[in-house]
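Question (not urgent): is this output format expected?
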Amino acid sequence: MIFRLGKVNRLKVQISFAFFIIFNFIQVHGFAQITLAKVFGDNMVLQRDIKIPVWGSAAPGKRIVAELGKFRIGTTADGDGKWMVYFPVFKAGGPYQLSISEQGTKGTEIELKGILIGDVWLASGQSNMEWSVKQALNADDEIAKADFPEIRLFQVTHVKKLTPQKDIAGGKWKVCSAENIPQFSAVAYYFAKKIHRDQGVPIGIIQSTWGGTPVESWTSREKLLSSPITKTKTMANDTLSEQDFVQDSLDQVRCWDIVYHPQHNSDKIISQPGYNDSGWPVIEMPKLIKDFGIGQYEGMIWMRKKIILPETFSKSDITLHIGRPDVNYSLYFNGTEICKTVWNTDPGQHYTIPAKILKNGENVVTLRLAMLWGGGGLNPPADEIYITNGTARISLAGTWKYQKDLEPAIAKNRNYQYYPSLLFNSMINPLIPYGIKGFLWYQGEANDTAAYNYRKLFPMMINDWRTRWKQGNLPFLYVQLANFKKTQPVPSESEWAELREAQSLTLSQPNTGMACAIDIGESDNIHPGNKQEVGRRLALVANKLVYKQNNTASGPSLKNFSKEGSRMRVSFTNTAGGLFSKDAKVLTGFSIAGKDKHFHWADAKIEGNEIVVYSDKVPEPVAVRYAWADNPQCNLMNSDGLPAVPFRTDNWKGITQK
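Got this back:
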């Protein structure tokens, strides 16, 4: 039977057939595009001495061929289009080339070059791990010398997600150089540099960090739901949607627009000497926002101070020292902008004020301060805020006028990156099961208000990661919180000390190691600049625990204690060649208590590998504490210069670093 179609019907059939061909072409060639997970790339480091996992996606059922060195392996994409191969064990070396293709399909090849085989460490945590080489101590010199072609760096792009993701948002492997190192984690870099030199193998660092985040953000939902500490808060995530993230992102964009760009020409108006500030409140400076007495506030605050310059100051350039600002600020002098939106981490907090804008007599100094995250203002001491002509000083401490709400309000930032499991979903889960040597971790500051819970939450996260990586008890090395905040005049309780104790207790977990930083913090800076020493101490731990070197990896750690009449005797491990006080000064940082649990500062003296602690105020001691404070004044160390680990005998669990 023959069917004859009219012109219109023939046209319809031809169009339908064309769409059918196009549709199938898209289905086959679009969906069939073979891909690698984004953690793989040129210049990467793959883990030596283990079977090497490589994975990606393709059209379901497609045959995939992968080649690395002399090894060629085939596999088939599963029903979801996922594929994975495991290459045999490689020794350290390279460079190698990795090629991936669909068997029998031309034009599908992916080739990655410059690949090294060595040790890969995953560095994670909050801002002190994120703190870049550029922001840390001796940045210019360190950056100029950062020529290590066998150290490779990868930064995972920031993103938060409600469910576990199959791939990261982005990132790129880079060769360690002066060009690539400035924005990379300082702690991780200094760790990598020492391990590379000590072990003589290529080192890869995968940095997955986000400032201000608690340990819960980095733990899986399943693990968090298993704990009564975190179950309720984790389930609250069920009310969130991706739209919440979008709105928060828009609010953040608006926030930074306000911070970096004075609104409504406020910088041109408020900074002028003739501006009327007669109705403004006054405050004694230096002072932080939390001490202003205005409650919690986030936004921009303007401050003004009138000063009288003698004739000797008005004839040549002068220098204005702003002291120790907190967060971010802009500075104006007689209406002229001197600096704009400078962060407190900037190494230079002093500025030249040109003679041409100076006046004999009254002058006006204006500050625009960003009050964010509960911070902002000027830190003491007062004698660091002044103007000088090189021979004399005029203090800028004392009475200032201030006013808030002169610019639009900053929308409340919900900081969803702080929410349980959201960073695990997007910045850890997609990395699994990339072959690694172990983990580096610097975090804890964001958990200080519930420090006791950290002794449960931290080991829980460690076990969570290890279980999912399926590489056994992978080494987990971490930094104990450094000294920070004001020095306490009398022995007292401390959330930071309690969190450090939780970190020490985590040494009970297998294959863990801790770098103590109790002597290299800064009282007024939660991000201490000496990241070189932090990285070095982590590397010492790795050399002993992971690479089985015979080195001292820790400072003195509590071994045991006993009562001897009116004195307490404390013994230590990790003494190396003996116990010493830093700079040969009298031992400090020890306190002692009787049954009343009231602690007093104590005298302490070294006897071999032991310390004898005593106080006339405590005739019947029962407990000793060392470095038990936010910012303890302590100086016990071993012969290798490593500081003693803080402790308290009234809650000691017998756990110490090997």
